[in-house]
Amino acid sequence: MKFSGRTLFNNTPVEITVVDARVQEIREVPSANSTTWVAPALIDIQVNGFAGFDLNVATVTSEDVCAMVRALWQVGTGFLCPTVVTGSFDGVCNSLRAVVEACEMDSLVAHSVLGIHLEGPYISAEDGPRGAHPLEHVREPDWDEFQRWQDIADGDISIVTLAPEKEGAIPFIKKLVANGIVVALGHTDAAPSDIQAAIDAGARLSTHLGNGAHALIRRHPNYIWEQLGADELWASLIVDGHHLPPTVAKSMMRAKTLDRCLLVSDAVALAGMKPGIYEFAGKSVELTADRCVRLVGTEYLAGSAIELARGIENSVRFAGVSLEEAVSLATLQPMHLLNAQAHVEAKTNLILFEWDATYCEINLIATIVGDELVYHTEAQQ
Length: 381
Ligand SMILES: [Zn+2]
What we know:
Helices cover 29% and strands 28% of the residues. By secondary structure, the chain is α/β, with parallel strands linked by helices. The protein has a single domain (41-345), classed as Metal-dependent hydrolases (TIM Barrel), CATH 3.20.20.140. The strands form 4 sheets. The chain has an 8-stranded parallel beta sheet with strand order 5-8-9-10-11-12-13-14. It starts with a strand and ends in a 5-residue tail after the last strand. The structure holds zinc ion. Zinc ion binds at residues 119, 131, 186-187, 208, 212.
């Protein structure tokens, strides 16, 4: 089987030869008689679930994690940070074990997992900043507890999202940074001084900036402006059209600059499911026809139901960035944040797609992960 296209980042015509689902050769050709783009496989550093699989339920198994990762390949996401959220000590252990065991039993899944993102439980207890995280499990940073989790995770926890105003958070951040973990601020009610202290301690990212926030806040100063204006912090953005209105996504990308932004899906298990009322994280949530997930009876969002590729499309639509820039926000940017270049570039990890410039749509043709063709449309057979 052969695929041909032009590389998105340097417009080089290439031909990819695949035999028995393995990449045999990628060679430059004089010209590509093709409108197909060849780009790096997408990297999503915040995935709670997908296609009905939920990492944060007590019943999650390693098979579920493998199935979730493989479902993500079908939509172009080649790498991810499975995201374990606020829960009891045992609940978090359980989710971490499922991810570690999935990586042990499937080497391609292991290749795909760039690290585990621990979001919580050291976050704000306030309604709004807490989002859909369960109040009864929100607590103060606890280094001993974190170390036990990191042992269970085989040292694979690589991002921690926390609220810097929690008691003991600043020394906790310093320890995480000393251990090579990316510290992200999120689900926070921090004062400007807390945010500055976190930056001084080595925090590098704002998790889904503009979300995990009160519905009403003081115009300024507030924790959104303060993080937006901090050049030391990168920002992950959920560009699904619900978590951030289009003008807010555009304004944040311009204020942060594209060099400090990256896209995340923050997908929950409902991503890929039909609209309706579901149980999620112990709460009733509604999935609307336009892919919005809300806590029933509130205006609070409870995770997203998009694929990362839709965030790329929306970035072009809302923020007027180029396709190349938008793809970079979901590939090169997260790769650099996690310092994962050596791992990502050691093997062939690509997506091939057609770009519909009129409707700003990515039509995926194939996904290659770890030198293996893991998805392709029928037309290419
Ligand atoms: Zn969150």
